[in-house]
């Protein structure tokens, strides 16, 4: 999946979260969780966009970590709504649960890969510095 395709996917996820949460914000039992879901679900797209515009690999990696955390949190809120029977189980809920799970998995791998690359770059930089000191 290309970065552009992933960006489109996070945008669609955010739009679906907004539509899903709209009626839940009116309910007394669902309002607080819907607000949390709205924040975390839309933060996935916002932070992925920010990661793509990162000024450095370190900034990119940090933002990917935030995206992973937010997608995981959104999944948690969706799962809680289902487990606590706050809303009826619908196709929309199941679809969002599936998508949040897939996005969480994608960003977990991307974050691990970015951190490994970051560690490799730092190790290489340290070796270059050590070799220049020895000369």
How are the SSEs placed, and which strands pair?
Layout: H1 3-24, H2 31-52, H3 57-83, H4 91-134
Helix pairs in contact: 1-2, 1-4, 2-3, 3-4
**Count of all domains:** 1
User: What is the molecular shape?
Assistant: elongated
CATH architecture type? Up-down Bundle
Radius of gyration using CA atoms only: 19 Å
CATH topology: de novo design (two linked rop proteins)
Q: Tell me the helix content.
A: over 70%
Query: Taking all residues together, what is the mean pLDDT?
Result: 93
Structural class: mainly alpha
Count the beta strands.
0
Strand content: under 5%
Largest sheet: none
- What is the CA-CA span between the terminal residues? 45 Å
SSE string, helices as H and strands as E: HHHH
Unreliable spans are none
DSSP helical segment count = 4
Model description:
The radius of gyration is 19 Å and the shape is elongated. The protein has helices at 3-24, 31-52, 57-83, 91-134. The chain has a single domain, classed as 23S rRNA-intervening sequence (de novo design (two linked rop proteins)), CATH 1.20.1440.60. With 135 residues, the protein is mostly helical. Helices cover 85% and strands 0% of the residues. It has four helices and no strands.
Please describe the structure with a list of short key phrases separated by commas or semicolons.
elongated, de novo design (two linked rop proteins), 135 residues
Summarize the structure.
This protein has 135 residues and is mainly alpha-helical.
């Amino acid at each position: 999946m290309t970065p552009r395709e992933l960006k489109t996917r996070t945008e669609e996820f955010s739009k679906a979260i907004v539509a899903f949460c709209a009626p839940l914000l009116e309910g007394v039992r669902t309002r607080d969780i819907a607000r949390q879901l709205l924040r975390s679900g839309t933060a996935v797209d916002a932070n992925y966009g920010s990661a793509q515009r990162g000024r450095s690999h370190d900034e990119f990696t940090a933002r990917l970590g935030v995206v992973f955390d937010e997608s995981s949190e959104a999944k948690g809120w969706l799962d809680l709504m289902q487990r606590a029977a706050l809303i009826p189980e619908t196709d929309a809920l199941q679809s969002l649960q599936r998508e949040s799970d897939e996005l969480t998995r994608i960003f977990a791998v991307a974050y691990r890969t970015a951190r490994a690359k970051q560690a490799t770059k730092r190790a290489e930089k340290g070796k270059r510095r050590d070799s220049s000191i020895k000369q």
